[in-house]
Amino acid sequence: MNPVTLTWRLLTADELTRVYLHEMCRDFPQSERKPLSMILTSEAAGTAHTWGVFDGEALAAYLLMVRPVGCAMSQLDYFAVLPQYRAAGLGAALLAELPSHENGASAILIEAECPEKAEDEAMAVRRLGFYARCGAQDVGWTEHLFDAWFRVLVLPCGSRTPDAETTVQGLVDCYRRTIGEPQWRKYVTFYRPDGSTAQF
To answer: Rounded to whole angstroms, what are the CA distances from 9 to 6, 12, 158, 162?
Structure first.
């Protein structure tokens, strides 16, 4: 599949609902999925949006993004290529294209599950390898989000890659604007490469 022949467009609420029920429920375990109502509310409020990538009329991939008004960076929340389009390098091609669709974003923020904390360590290692091959850089920080542990990665939208501190500050900004000051401080903690807790 040639990525050039594919079309990107934002999904409507009805389309997103179908994608959630028929695709996301297959592609992501329940423990990793936000409730559909939360996703739809975020999109209605303008703090999130979802790209559908289409092969003619057929959906080939979807990318759920978080980018509240005022945030300099976009956060990749969920990304999957549909089964019939996998194993042909399409995922890497689409991730490389993503910055050009996130107009004005200085970078794409990515949270990748820590292999040593994951239920499926091999899968977590493969995901990190995939992101690395696509140009995303591991900034060396870890994140404890609710009950899960993540590595913080950044995919630049241009020639300049934000440094680690700026990248993590971008994630803080996303959480502060989406779930509010008390909530994000309660449920999200960032750790520097030396293991110390970061204060923001």
So the answer is: 10, 9, 22, 27
Within 8 A by CB and 6+ apart from 154, the residues are 107, 108, 109, 110, 136, 137, 139, 161, 162, 167, 170
3-class DSSP state of 108: strand
Q: Which residues contact 145 (CB under 8 A, 6 or more apart)?
A: 111, 187, 188
Instruction: Report residue 39 CA to chain centroid gap.
Output: 13
Number of Cβ within a 10 Å radius of residue 70: 7
Instruction: With a cut of 90, say whether residue 3 has pLDDT above it.
Output: no
Burial 129-158 (b: 16+ CB within 10 A, else e): eebeebbbbebebbbbeeeebbbbbbbbbe
Quick: pLDDT tens for 127-144.
Answer: 999 999 999 999 999 999
Kindly tell me the burial class for residue 7, based on how many C-beta atoms sit within 10 Å of its own C-beta (0-12, 13-18, 19 or more): exposed
Nearest to 176 by CA among 98, 66, 78: 66
- DSSP-assigned letters across all residues of 124-188: HHHHHHHHHHTT-EEEEEEEEETTEEEEEEEEESSS-PPPHHHHHHHHHHHHHHHH-HHHHHHHE
